[in-house]
Amino acid sequence: MAELATSVAAGVICSLLEKLGSLAAAEYAMFTSDRREVELLVDELSSMKAVLEKLAYIENLDPLTKQWRDQVRELTYDTEDCIVSSMLQDRQDGAKDWFIWKIFPFFKDLREGYNLSKQINQIKADVAELSARRERLKIDEVISTSSRVSIDPRLHVLYKDTAGLVGIDGQKDKLMDMLKDDQHLKVVSIVGFGGLGKTTLANLVYHALPTQQHHENRFDCQAFVSVSQRPDINGVLCSLLRMLRVDTTSSDNSNVQLLVSMINQHLQHKRYLIVIDDLWNESDWYTIRCAFPENNSGSRLIVTTRIDSVALDCCSNRREDVYPMKPLEEQYSRRLFLTRIFGSQDACPEYLKEASTEIIRKCGGLPLAINVVSGFLASKKTPERKEHWERVQSSLGTIDREFEPMKQMSQILNLSYMHLPHHLRACFLHLGIYPEDRKIMTDDLVKQWVAEDFVPCCPHRRDREDVARGYFNELVNRSILQPVDIDYKDEVMSCRLHDMMLEFILDKSADENFITVMDKFGVRSGGTSKIRRLSLQSDQENHVSVPGAITLTQVRSLATFGYSGDSVDRVCSRLKFVRVLVVEGRGITLDDMAGVCLLLQLRYLKITSHMDYEDDAVLLPPEILNLRFLETLDIADVYDATLPEEIAHLSSLRHLLLPSEVVLPDDIGRMKSLRTIRKFDMSQNSVACINGLGTNLRDLELCFDTDTCYPGEGNVALCSALQKLAGENLKHLAIVSEDM
């Protein structure tokens, strides 16, 4: 665990070095003597960063070295916040007293220089103390002589969605036999510990079973929902209703009894196929089970669980209806492992066969373990090198299927993450901000990683988001992320984390003070002292609030899922350095937005609401002009929105994602940084606005209302704008009709 934390600490220094570099380059007012001090600080911190990167490959650090590493990390966070705070204060004061500073610019520079000078002296003292401690502890002598593993990010996704299905055909056939020939409602459970492929098998049968039914016995409706270890039963039932295409209102969503009744009535005279994935206890089953009527129509329920007693309970204690998931046989394990690395089982070199046999044996037939280990080897530039295999072989213990398989599984997961290159480690930990079983959009991750400065400024002017997408692809290649939606270009649009992977991440994050997760049970992961990233995970019955005694000023990312017990503006008033804000599952008021507009460091803002239509509108105030660093504004998943004219002055805004029928300002052409507009509603926006579509746009989604007659000049302007964009940077154009 220490090696991952050390590498993340090194990554934190990178962001600080960039800011100190800006100071030394005279971007801000500074005394000459201070500029020299900054240059010396950059040298010392760079040296510390190099030490931390080397420490990252030592598995067992002694307690004093770990303590020094943690002190460097926290000092780096606090120093960066301190510098940013000083610069922001100078800008705010300058804005207030602009007339004085315009007359006496010398005194303005003197005041700013004095403020920075104080900060630099304090940083200098703190860094000197840590440098002296590094000497006393002889930390440089601790460093291993092991060479750094260097892996360049892949630009093409190598994940093969058939890989997880090796050896599963026999299991599929047995399970489908268990579901045949019965007009009564039949429940079949799949049971086994995590990583065996229960969800994969259930999903395969879910898609295969309807195709094998005679026309008169086809299922009328289907649904596949996940429950998880800490379920939101209201949310599970609402997901069922959405998949069954039953409309609900927000008032319905808060009443479990009503939701169960609505599902039951909808299915009363239908033949249905439902999968309940990842069920953990009997009480949740008793609630969910009431939604499914016994109508003698040949309906089927498939339940997956890790717990044998739950599996039996779902099947009314009929052991013959419980399918025990077994590990893969050796031949299938070998095929999955070698095909993932070499593309074919037969392509494995002869000199690696002995090592491969031992590695496969140690994976114990677990598909998740096999995918993670083979993904690690496949990510190497030269996967055929014998030393890579010998290192894996010596690092792995053997999974004992009879004794604590999950505890030993973490050893296999740890192998992959110990060898993650430095640039991927913070991105990996950041995944823990999302709730269990959540589908995560690739674009969201990419933009959040850039906003958090996990992606450094790139040489040769390479776009940081392109680099971040390479990071994402690398995590997919290593089987850390599971692709969900793949587009026609074989690019992964969305993904999921295996629940075992999420628990592993949260365990690592707690050690690193990277993310604090709070849910209805309290603090699930991380601490409450100096919170750096906060995830609030509520459900409709349990609204999570942050106690007033907990300080939030150091928070850099805040994500709220569900109906938080605190209003957005109340939480925002406690934030200072937040860069990423995600608000999902609740409406947002004008007061809330006023609070958001005070977050001067905000770079990424996403608001998603599930409220009733009349309550689901976002009104952005003119004060949004304060968000001068905002790069992404995503309000596409609200019913309605109103933008002020001032939004055209957000010079850093790169991505603007909107619902339909939103009016953009005529002078949108001022937004030179804008790369994405979704949706640009042709029925609402003026010819001047169309003409203003900048040549820097990469991604444009046009929205049409087929019942609206568009003026000829609007069509001409659009054609002209598209012709201009096509000759420049436009990579993606979508044209959609709201009536389709």
Automatic annotation (TrEMBL):
| Domain Disease resistance protein winged helix: start-end pairs | 433-505
The reply to whether Mitochondrion figures as a keyword in the UniProt entry is no
The terms under GO molecular function for this entry are: ADP binding
The alphabetized UniProt keywords are: Coiled coil, Leucine-rich repeat, Nucleotide-binding, Plant defense, Repeat
Which positions fall inside the NB-ARC domain?
170-339
Annotated ranges, domain Disease resistance R13L4/SHOC-2-like LRR: 554-738
Q: Which residues form the Disease resistance N-terminal domain?
A: 12-95
| Family to which this protein belongs | Belongs to the disease resistance NB-LRR family.
Name of protein: Uncharacterized protein
Which species?
Triticum aestivum (Wheat)
